[in-house]
Amino acid sequence: MRVLLLGNYRADRQFSMLGFVGALQAGLPGLGLEVRAVAPRARIGRLRLPGASKWLAYADKYLLFPPELRRAIRWADVVHVCDQGNAMYSRYLQGVPHIVTCHDMLAIRSALGEIPAWRTGPAGRIYQSLILSGIRRSRCAACVSSATQRDLLRIAPRSESDARVVYNGLYRRLEPMPRAEASAILAGLGIMPDERYLLHVGGNQFYKNRNGVLQIYAALRRLPEGAGVRLVMAGKPLTTDLRAAVSRQGLAPHVVEAACVSDEQIRALLSRAQALLFPSLHEGFGLPIVEAQACGCPVFTSNRAPMTEVGGDAAVYFDPAKPEEAAALVAERIDCLSAMRAEGFENARRFSTERMLQGYAAAYDYALETQSRRAA
Question: In the chain, pLDDT over 90 holds for what percent of residues?
Answer without folding.
Answer: 89
